[in-house]
Amino acid sequence: MTQDKHASAAARWTPWLALALLGAFPLLAPALGLDFYVGFVRRALIFALAAAGLNFILGFGGMAALGHAGFIGVGAYALVALVNAGVDSAWILWPAAVALAAGVAALIGLVALRTRGVYFIMITLAFAQMLYFIAVSLRVYGGDDGYNLPARPTLGLGLDLAHEPTLYWVVLALFAGVMALLNRATLSRFGHALTGIRDNETRMQAMGYPVFRLRLAAFAIAGAIAGLAGALLVTNNSFVSPAVMHWTQSATLIVMVVIGGVGRRWGGPVGAGVWILLEEFTKQYTDYWHLPLGVLLLLIVFLAPRGLVAVLQRKPRAVIAASPAGATE
Amino acid sequence: MSLFKVEGLVKRFGALLATDHVDLEVRAGEIHALIGPNGAGKSTLVNLISGLHAPDAGRIVLDGVAITGLPMHRRVEAGLSRCFQITSIFRDATVRDNLLLAAQAHAGSSMRFLRPRDAEPALFETAQALAERVGLAGQLERIAGALPHGAQRKLDVALALAARPKLLLLDEPMAGMGPEDSERMTELIHSLRSDMAILLIEHDMKAVFALADRISVLVYGRVLVAGDAATIKGHPQVQAVYLGTEELAVEEAAAA
Amino acid sequence: MTATLLIEQLLNGLGYGLMLFLLAAGLTLVFGIMDVMNLAHGSLFMGGAYVAAEVHTHNGSFVAAVGVAIAVVVMVALLLEVFLVRRLYGRDHLSQVLATFGLILIADDLVKMIWGPSPVMASAPAALAGPVELLSGLFYPAYRIVLLAAGVAVALGLYLLVNRTRIGMVVRAGASNRAMAEFMGVRVGRVFSLVFLLGAALAALAGALMGPITAVQIGMGEDILIPSLVVLVIGGIGSIRGALVAALLVGLVDTIGRAFVPMALATALPPTVVSDLAPAIAGLATYALMAGVLVFKPAGLFPARG
User: Fold this and answer.
1) Is the pTM of this model over 0.80?
2) Is the ipTM of this complex over 0.85?
3) Burial B130-169 (b: 16+ CB within 10 A, else e)
4) Residue among A118, A137, A305 minimizing CB distance to C95
5) CATH entry 3.40.50.300 includes domain B2-255
């Protein structure tokens, strides 16, 4: 278990500073001529959310799932289906997306989690492809061409999600909330059990942990978070197509997590932010933006395999055993 | 009075009959040793008992409860715990973290997502007690992978003890140990006798004869003979099959 | 549903299956022996298709086109192996997935730079453009027959290579137990390079042959990669025999699924439902097959590793 128990002061207030800056961004953007980028940062936050969920099972749970974008799709299409049926309240749409994605993830996990290693990678990929094909064939929701939302979901409470900054702050709040819960979870009994399973599954079994159940729960949680990301993505873009769940999207999510740092608390969000920023940046300069990103991947794999968070935290992290709350060393 | 029974256990791997209708019995408060030459099927038998493999036939009963088909974590609940021939610990974590994980496994559900684990003093007390029990109390802050071999084996045993089992499966606890470490391990095992029955798989005959109340000899997947130390030592077939090869080597060396 | 249609689809399925075999054989060897997950295998396929199309358009000789395609791709593969893939041996699968995914991105853009974003025209050789009458009333494109023949020939050749030659024996030993093979003095590095290049040659051949009957476009590598990986998993990692059986299975299931599921459903369900459901089922069929196989045989049909 390599978790920071006595994080340095900088590591502790950086997230809060980032949150403050992100919160202030829509207010500062017009002055800097960056209005357009409110939507862009919002999209980055949504992917950061999905990546954080993936990091939970990949980094903390050791489960290399190459089909995670499928659950984003489930969340997105759940919302689309309900909108198509006349529902327009976010209070119904978003939780429904989360619930459906969690349920689908649990069902897929029941089968997939019986495999290990490359077979697990393949079977999660296969299930995601199945979901993709289902989405493509659902012509009532546009099939390959996708589905346009007539309007953004409503939130009530005097908040108009059609107003760009409002949606931004709602997304930011959800992101912060989920990150807070995830961070708590990694420190909880569940989190420790999960990393234990990652580090030595046989021993965990021999100690009496219900390994399968614990993995399944983590898988479903990650699926739920991805479902939320999917719902927010549709809300953000007012559009969704099966492309959102193509396997290359799943691979991109893994790339994000690895760039940020597998198993690091902020690995998912940092990686997502870096990737999306680079993607946007290179797109502006050239049509051939896949190339530099591909090179970046190679550089990361060969030069910074632990991801950028590790590079930023250059001081070697000593694992200092914690003492129970209140006791003195 | 029999605490643990294995009846007619069979396991095949393809054409290989690894476990051939094995019967075994461990009484309450007893240390029962399982010996046999390499390849006899001791590890397979241990894996069948602990639940890593499913038997093709036979029954396993612990304290009156049939545990034959149960998954591993249910067997642990029923009172079975094991340690491993090849040390199986969490190498990148501290000794304390290792023991905390073991303590957590037996202190209620792990499906708790919000409360920090480190805010549970009871777990820390259990970890401390476990460390003291095996003699690792001064090593709690050390990274498990950096410990010397003997200490790692002790940690392996400690992780198994956290389950407060009725039957402890010790799979070659002395493996790779020098004489000093072996002695300490022997003392440790001896001290456990009052709390649990022990099924001890070992090659170290000195330790076996020092500890075991009864011994079962496993050869080619079947139990050749079971009895107390004197019975086993004097049994001609055991000598021939297991100890005999050494005597033969000694004779040949003497003749050369 | 007529007998001719059935035979035609069966032959299509076999053809597709044999092409998948060419790809999966390389993948299974690379993964089985070198333990390297190479997602860029599909990009080698794409390279073969593009180069063959280019040479054929300018030169006119299809055989030359195929030959040049294989040669070029093998040279690229050699560079890749020496500078990149070699450094992935022994690394965890996730790093390999990432690095080779990076290669996919680079390859896609390189192709786009050289040939542009639109699909490229790859035509079958004029001599093979027409149909052949196999049985009375049964016409089948001549080109596809050549494809079948080539696929069978390669399968046979691979079988002989792997099972009847010394080098094949070394390869099989490496696939089943790499450490042991090393201990027994096998020059592991050389074997690895050879296997990688052989895989690349097969992928390029598949690409060159499939070009005329599919769309030669950016991303075709990714599209064929997934079915190839499905074949790999169903067949069992490291087994050529497994790859062949699985490839034929997948090819047949996929083709027949697409051809006959709509028909079968149409007998029982209204057309609107059928037009939604049929492509979904057809697309899902191979994945359902894979999931089904893994339930009963979690290591595939013929795993090479013990």
Assistant:
1) yes
2) yes
3) bbebbbbeebbebbbeebeebbbbbbbbbbbbbbebbbbb
4) A305
5) yes
